[in-house]
Fold these 4 entries.
Entry 1:
Amino acid sequence: MTTDRTPPPDAPVAVAVREVRKRYGDRQAVDGLSLDVRRGEFFGLLGPNGAGKTTFIEIVEGLRQADSGTVEVLGHSPWPRNTALLPRIGVQTQASAFFVRQTAREHLVTVAGLYRKDAAAADRSLALVALTEQRDVLVENLSGGQRQRLAIASALVHDPELIFLDEPTAALDPQARRDLWQVLRALKGEGRTIVYTTHHLDEAEALCDRVAILVGGRIAALDSPHRLITSAGARTRLLVPEGRIGLDEAAALDGVDRVGEQGGSLVLETSVPGKVLQALDALTGLDGVITRTATLEDVYLELTGHAAAGGPSPAGGGSPAEGTPAHTLESRA
Ligand SMILES: Nc1ncnc2c1ncn2[C@@H]1O[C@H](COP(=O)(O)OP(=O)(O)OP(=O)(O)O)[C@@H](O)[C@H]1O
């Protein structure tokens, strides 16, 4: 369940970004972005492919120069390359480099050495990402998910205050993903600041204090997942087993905004679920009726211009996204 964990507005700032722009040829990848990440905050950066997330993060990390605007990281400008910042930040990228002919532990001891940390630091970060058992396995023989965890351990080995994680759970199986959530929560519990990019909306909803949704290099929304969901007024979906009531009958129910069909169910969208459930109860009984409340994914899909997966799309809309019902009806109520 989502809770509101937004840090107080007077919390010290870890990352301050003002009017940052970056263009590649004709492509305006980042288009005047301004935001603050507060110390101790778990900040999510979301957005479709090509929205400008990586470009933006790389500018903040000091790996790329902005065309204009200002960035401050822990009180310093990250560009030109600021070596004083390096021990204070940890960076995991989608294309992490490894010493593949070393074992997992040797790799981490090497990385720890670059930061003048000892082997104990390497062992601690191996344990943190649950790779202790694989410590003597060559990096080239680790599975994709294990390498991903090693990349995260490499970003944490020097105990940074500010951690950038770029889709850290992309290659993880569901259990490993949940395990990593625990690791990340523990890091936040220690007061570290985390800037996090993900395409997993459930993950952002579960972990992040605030999220920024980027579209076309701009911020389309920035708030806590809870406030984004409630302020968007996203509707509840009621899934009624097919054959109970007809499409027209459902659309005519008082309080139903839209009706669609999907996966053997009628999908009724409503902002007054209690009222519609009562009406359904009287008509067909509630056996097998499933209630789906709005999620961050609904808000995201609305903002990024896709039809909501698993729910009705507006009648006469564009081509339906995967998982969108084949038939929908706007309510006449
Ligand atoms: N080095 C580059 N040269 C030219 N264009 C680039 C370069 N890097 C990114 N782009 C373009 O800039 C835009 C933003 O890309 P970016 O990688 O920042 O997006 P993203 O949100 O991280 O995407 P994804 O979710 O796919 O990783 C895209 O249109 C991309 O093609």
Entry 2:
Amino acid sequence: MEDDNHTPTLSRQDSDLDFSFTTTVASSSARSSLARSSLCLSFNESTRLSSASASAAASTSSTVIPNLHSRPHRKSDVNWSAIKAATNLSSDGTLHLRHLKLVRLVGSGNLGRVFLCRLRDYEHANFAIKVVDNNLLTSKKLAHVQTEGRILSSLDHPFLPTLYAHIEVSHYTCFLIDFCPNGDLHSLLRKQPNYRLPIGSVRFFAAEVLVALEYLHSLGIVYRDLKPENILIREDGHIMLSDFDLCFSADVEPKLDNRTITGNRRSRGGCYGGSIQIHAEEETVTEFVAEPTTAFSKSCVGTHEYLAPELVNGNGHGSGVDWWAFGVLVYELLYGRTPFRGGSKESTLRNIASSKVVTYGRETETEEAQPGMAEAKDLIEKLLVKDPRRRLGCSRGATDIKRHPFFDGIKWPLIRTYSPPEHRGVVIKRNSKSHASHVITPSKRRRWIWKGLSYMLMKSKGSKRNLNSNQNYYCCRNNVL
Ligand SMILES: Nc1ncnc2c1ncn2[C@@H]1O[C@H](COP(=O)(O)OP(=O)(O)OP(=O)(O)O)[C@@H](O)[C@H]1O
């Protein structure tokens, strides 16, 4: 229970904080030791953090809770409900570290360590907490932490993390986000024969990443660190992009474009059948286009094997770097290696910058003849175009990539409902909402009110017909609450 006499000062809070993340815990990192690290050679002037503001940031102590009602995609999420319940019970209406219980270390990176944690009073909701020790970071890295916090707080998408709380305590910055128990795509690849995924799985993961990138671009965010290590697999088998410290923001004007497509329509020659006639038909479709237009940065950031040529050349780059990296990703998932990898990091960069075209190596004829393989290669070749002005995706964004034949048959608005592929090393929990009963949410309370109301109506009217209609109404409400 919350202490009623609680004074929200740092010293009082510190006494009941669980600072166990300061102790050394044996790592059970889901990330393989072969994971490729990101590089960062220079920074945009606009994102540089002065040491004065860095130390000011480090010394603040606050809990920043994102607006609990501004996440439409989380409306029925049990973790979100648990956070809301814990926050409502908190004496000052905010979440503190003392509300959390660290379970184990799941991984560590350049900026900090990530722990699995739970809310003390809602044991069934798992979260990941990224803990950054500001005292250990240079001002450049502190700027990255700030970027990550800013980006995380703006996201609301099923394939991106939800920031449940941003806690600044003493010299620690903590981000509470969704926990992904199935590790990352890099570790998953390394468990597969020849580090390769079947083409159906490649299509599934690529489609989800594409939708996540489209969302980021529509917010004007260029991701710049796409690689399998940063694609985490959620409990339900869907993906979650992570690691937003290398992102940069640009202007974007999402718009609806009309496009005319010509296709063939088949029709019967009369009311009762007859010969089939084929008509050439023009159709106008309205498409969502949201590609950052003014995106421009000269920083060389990312991971060697995934860097686009314009990044390597240092001539400045825009959102096209994400579409290049997307091509490298599809290639790696399909072939178990990246297309320009050389014997050293320098030779990798030389291969990327040179006009070398993408090659595929010696795959067996049977593998190459798999349905979808020709389309996958065509997609890769259209994405791995050195000149960003001619690269697929660079003018109209994800909309153009979604229409590529490799993704034929995907119903994009329904993508969240597709069953994720099963693989060795991934345990998919089909109904991740099974622990909903442990949290009393406002919507549940409303349901109880409705139940009570329908019971009262039933008693007052005494009619079976009315009872049924009330029940039906209640069921309908249930679906929309
Ligand atoms: N939400 C999560 N659920 C489960 N594991 C996670 C989660 N977020 C991060 N991890 C794991 O923790 C490790 C470090 O996380 P992350 O990459 O975010 O840290 P970082 O300090 O930003 O690293 P980087 O060096 O890539 O910048 C990774 O191995 C990742 O797999």
Entry 3:
Amino acid sequence: MSPPGGIATLPAMSEPAPPAAESPLDPEQRLAAEAEADSVLVLAGPGTGKTTTLVGRYVHLLEQGAAPARIFVSTFTARAAEELRGRIGARLETRGGDFDAERFRRMPIGTLHGMALRLLQRHPPPGCPRFRVFDEQACSRVIARHRLYLGDDVRKPTDVFGAYKDRLMSPAAALAEAKVRNDATLVEAAEAYGRYQRALAEEGGFDFGDLIMELVRGLEEDEAYRARIAGFFDHLLIDEYQDINPAQERMLRLLRSEGARLWAVGDDDQCLYAWRSADPAFILGFETAWPDPALFRLSRNYRSSATIVNAAGALIGANRRRHAKDQVPHSASRLALTIAGLDDDEDEADYVLRVVKGLSGRGMPWNEMAVLYRAGHVGSRIQIRLAEAGIPLVVRGAGEFWQLGPVRLTAGLARLLSNPQDMDARAMLGHGKRVDKLLQQAPEKIDADVPWPALCRQVGRLVSATARPPGEEGLQWRDLAFTAADLAAECGTVAAFIALMEEQRRSLRRAESGGDAVVLSTIHGAKGLEWSAVVVAGCEADLMPHESSPDLEEERRLMYVAATRAKRWLVLSFAAERRKAVAPSPYIAEMLSGLDEDQIRYHDPQSRARLHAGPPQPVKADGPLRLRPELKVSSGMRKGRAPSKRTRF
Ligand SMILES: Nc1ncnc2c1ncn2[C@@H]1O[C@H](COP(=O)(O)OP(=O)(O)OP(=O)(O)O)[C@@H](O)[C@H]1O
């Protein structure tokens, strides 16, 4: 097999590595870190050192005499918060003096939800009931026990209820809104929300959304309580400000009511959580929303090559609702961006495998490579192919193959039918209307006494038949159900299948803790991270922008975040056919418009031809579906067994 275009001449290994994380601040960063205004927004693009500047701000405040316990630092995820704590701690340690690592671990650095929990536990507001925190699993159990499924189960009930809480809406307010809009689906959701809140209260549980709701309630209802709590802090440092939602904004507003200074960093172009009520309007309107505002910009991109900065700039420039930003690439590298137009998803997976092997062969560590995608099913084919080749990999975001909905249903149901006592299999199935229906249909539609491979195929068919809505999502659903059934059948016995799943989970955990592994991630899961080489897979017209998304600007931001994770080498790959003929994503052309010819490399002549070809011929409505008739089942996924023959349904 020939190496993919570009690898042979890849100068990546000979280029200097980017500087270490805590480089001294540049003049723009220093100005922002030392700002005096009451409300500061550092607005800057990816890789400009926003997080680095936040660390610098913390150190600066300490140098000015601030007490660490009075500096509240928040970021978006618990993982990011721990990384931030580690970075600040390392910086303080190098300053010497009397740094006490144990004490520093207790300083208020966390997510806004985590901070709300901490305040509620240590200083409960008047009227706050005793509570236990219910994680997502516990909440799903409440939903299952009370059968709070929604007719439209495309969105999980926990997400729907969470969205009300992100907007600080009580069940009564949600119901009133639904009635005003005269929308039966919304009325059903609001009523289920009310029952959910009652069920949580009976069990003494708060879910994550309740934590901020309850703190805000306490702060708003009791002035003395608010004054006491807000009085704890002199400084609020907020990372990823573009992703805050109305409930979080209210919490910050209340926490600074005793005069704390607000200092936030963010990038409106990286707001990815509109579906969780994040609203770019908060960052766009910062200067009118807060007192004594000051806006700082960082213009030097320390992460990416000039090629990547230019291509990403051309892309995001097409969005209208944004602050324009100039970015100067620190690295002058014009290393070409690679476009790979592949036949189909199998071909794409083969290509990605050749790319990572090629880079590794040239000395790049696995953990400097990532494959990012908009939708989990794009990653699953690549995941299987890399795993079978024995490449160490970590799957981040909602995308681990065995966690995908149709895969869980197929594997769980086949196992359960083969052994009704298999509790893990029951847990894999989860709960919901679709699960109830499957369990109801299974006894009459499936002959469970046949050998394991035949059982798997029957289950694959049954699960695939639950696909909906019509269209691509249904096709993806069926494809994944068949893939899972195929993999399970190939194992020969249920015991071998369970062993395969366990081994894969173990190897994922090993890779995660060991560190040196290629990252496969949804774009959402890649936020804030960086790698030397990034392949953005599935760059197709119906996936990027995703055809079901109502927000095209957010879709473009997703592509932007994906592309800007790359330091030196960026590949955009697309398949000409993914169960139907598809055109390349329009975002590819937008990115290329920012580049000169010498900054673009096509994997092969066909890639260029495919990119510039017109839209694909529509698939005949009555034409046969290409429902993975043949899957090369991975040898590496079934340790110790010879590569299998292809399976046909
Ligand atoms: N002053 C500097 N000198 C050299 N390198 C720097 C400097 N500031 C930041 N960097 C490097 O630039 C890279 C990006 O920094 P950082 O993660 O802080 O950016 P960011 O703006 O928060 O990015 P994103 O918005 O994509 O999360 C890191 O590798 C960091 O070490």
Entry 4:
Amino acid sequence: MFKGICRETHNGNMVTKILKIPKFFTCIRNFSSENVLVEVNNKTNTAILRLSRPPVNGLNLEVLNEFESLLSQLEQQKVNGVIITSNKEGILTGGIDIAELQTIDQRRLKKYWTTFRDTFLKLYNTPLLTVAVINGHSPAGGCLFSTACDYRVMTRNYNIGGNETQLGLVAPIWFMDRVADLIGHRQAELAFTQGKLFSTDEAHKLGLIDEIVENTAEGLSKAQIIINSFANVPKKAREISKRFTRQQFLDKMIRDTDDDIRHFVNHIGSNETQKIIEQYMQKLKSKRF
Ligand SMILES: CCCCCCCC/C=C\C=C\CC(=O)SCCNC(=O)CCNC(=O)[C@H](O)C(C)(C)COP(=O)(O)OP(=O)(O)OC[C@H]1O[C@@H](n2cnc3c(N)ncnc32)[C@H](O)[C@@H]1OP(=O)(O)O
């Protein structure tokens, strides 16, 4: 028997059911956490991870910890590929849950940023094939996490990019480096100094995403096609090639760990930045953009 979790909405309330699924008859393995739904198709051995934290899949400490732990489990299960998407069409994630930034407690900020970096590194460094199906807006932290994947498809008419500068914040240098890897240094320079959010079409033209799809279903089947296209590639050689192409970025990010965490704590923990964050939250709540 597999134990699975099924979440359904009844009269507007989310209900969680524990399912007992006979191993023989199911084609889905299901081991969701609180904020991340996971299903593994037994036939294709591909996992779909769906961010599921209303209202905007904000990346708080719990989501990051769950995501990292689920990826570790999927590595142990040696799945053929992982597809990362949102359970809510229209928003992949609103990025960092701003509540996590509303503190001057240095220990909390340090813990959050260490977890944020570790989760990104886990995704960036996993030997598994990863495809992001960006089925909604993906500002800041959302864009960053999708850049860690091996391939990105995105549905039309949404926005993606690093908007931190627009908010009066400074994006981490490794986010800038990663975007520069994808769209080139000049375009990254323009994008981050302006805090630019790109439309799906613009992101595609620049190479920030690889393909455009019409909806989530098409995105998921496209992601499966990408994963299948690696079926005849020797696994070990692919994994080592992935590691080699990513090694330089990784080495730099790890070498700069202490500086990066110190900058984050000083930047976010300053009274000046706290005021900016507070004003931004008020704007967000009153939708004054
Ligand atoms: C010296 C320098 C050193 C540098 C070191 C490194 C420093 C790194 C610093 C910062 C890094 C920041 C990265 C981030 O990720 S910051 C977060 C950026 N995200 C955003 O700006 C997104 C804001 N949200 C939106 O644009 C929209 O909400 C959207 C996601 C497009 C969804 O729109 P919509 O469907 O219309 O939903 P609402 O806007 O009505 O939102 C619903 C409720 O959710 C709240 N919300 C939205 N986003 C967030 C968020 N990121 N965190 C917390 N809460 C969020 C929103 O206020 C609504 O709440 P309520 O219903 O109570 O009004």
